[in-house]
Amino acid sequence: MEKKIKKVDLIFGKVDHLDILNNSFQRTRDEIILDVIDSGLRGRGGAGFPTGLKWKFAKNEEADQKYVICNADEGEPGTFKDREILTQVPEKVLAGMALCGYCIGASEGYIYLRAEYNFLLPSLYKAIDQFHEHLKAMKFDFTIRICSGSGAYVCGEETALMESMEGKRGEPRNKPPFPTSEGYLGKPTSVNNVETLVFALMIAQEGPAKFKEMGTFDSRGSKVFSVSGDTPTPGIYELELGMTLEQFVEEFGDGDTKAVQVGGASGFCVSRKDFRSTLIGFEGIPTGGSMMLFNSSRSMYNILNDYLEFMEEESCGQCTPCRVGCQQLLKGIEAVKRGVKPPSYLEDLQKLSDTMRIASKCGLGQSVPNPFNSIINNFREEIIY
Amino acid sequence: MTRIKELVKEQAEKHGRERTSLMPILQAVVRSEHYLSEEAMIAIAEELDLSTADVFGTASFYTFLDTVHRGKYIIRVCKTITCHMKGKDEIIRTISDILKIKLGETTTDSRFSLLQANCLGWCHKGPVMLINDEVYPEITPEKTSEIINEYLKKK
Predict the structure, then answer these.
(1) Out of A164, A227, A265, whose CB is closest to B23?
(2) Across the interface, do B61 and A165 touch by the CB < 8 Å criterion?
(3) ipTM above 0.85 for this complex
(4) Tens digits of per-residue pLDDT, A168-226?
(5) A230: nearest Cα among B139, B87, B82
(6) What is the pLDDT of residues A12-41, one digit of tens each?
(7) Rounded-to-integer distance, Cα A20 and Cα A37, Å
(8) Shortest CA gap B56–chain A (Å)
(9) What are the structural domains, with CATH classification, of chain A?
(10) Given strand A290-295, what is the order of strands in its sheet?
(11) Please, what CATH class does the domain formed by B73-153 belong to?
């Protein structure tokens, strides 16, 4: 089954976003939500929750106020697509937010923008002002504001993000209650990734069929990938889902790719022997877009060390498995490398990482075992010697 | 009223005195003062009727809300994976040599601080650094020294 990688242009193509909104406002909220559900669109931030369902849950809540939040706290190492979307087509993101607002019945939207992207603020404010004017003309009551982050990776987790918006430490909450019932300021809230909102807008324009015919059963449509590392063509590409890693590496590799980290520091490391059997998508290895390629000149020990250092610094420290786990994993591989601990100590560390997966409160601690176990299993010698 | 207290009051007028106003106020003080002094945090606590521990607890959670003295230009070199692979260490060495400070330090004239940051979101154009809000992607040691020298000429 030879299939060339298909490039798609749904996200960055220019459209008349006001026209799409106008047409959508002629339809009922349920019709649009059903289209989004039918399209199979799943959250593009990485977790992959079905977007239409999220909107439906938020819509079904009774409340005097609801909120739409656009998650632009793109912090996953290797991901930079949301920045590009916000730079090139901010109006599509804003329209996606308004569409979500219409569907769930919210009159306020927030963009949570990471501090590292503060340079985008002037252009975003300009786009928002223009957009507000248009909404006023369309007589649709919806206001968008920007909340700035202050350099915390964990705030990309939706409940930590809302804590931060509420002026607190960005520590994830317990779930349930889910944000669609109790979110920002305790009100029903739909938190969606930048890319997801644009896809929802495009589905409203094109209908679900066009989206659904792309990709695979579990991973419909296309996705924006951020490609970096040892590649002659780093950059941002919108590709149809459903390709194997082998096809991906043929397109983007430098001919000497020994491993690809799919999904950033919280994702999985796949070694060359598994490229052919690995599908990029929810039935294989999901990714929020981060694809880092490593060639044979790279030490996988250094790479794992970098990932763990990142997680150790970004762990919010609230729950013990993650706070202590990250520290111990990092110290542990350093000790094995130096010969202070025997190679068999790696097995103890893997048990610890399994515990982190089960016992950590949020996705950060739960996903540290992904890079840890996959790199140790695939490149054990490089960690020890 | 001291200058800091005035600044905090002015920001509270602008952003409100709700808990949700805390982050914008902390961010505004950092923009103006480059860090959050004890005096500033106490003033914010009083203005918003919060405990000082709560203000410090929130501020200290965030990497970009420094609670130690920083220079006017905060240089943050990305240190995560791809930028590491593409030579961020050389960039840091270059800046260190020009400004005569090590990582984490501030020049004696309080103009520059040199820090590392976790992923800045420019992995395809690494190495990259931020100077305050300004981004400098695809830098080389040569380009870096040009940029830093430009900043040195600034007032």
Answers:
(1) A164
(2) no
(3) yes
(4) 999 999 999 999 999 999 999 999 999 999 999 999 999 999 999 999 999 999 999 99
(5) B82
(6) 999 999 999 999 999 999 999 999 999 999
(7) 18
(8) 10
(9) 17-212 (3.40.50.11540), 222-295 (3.10.20.600), 300-379 (1.20.1440.230)
(10) A235-240, A222-229, A290-295, A257-262, A268-271
(11) alpha beta
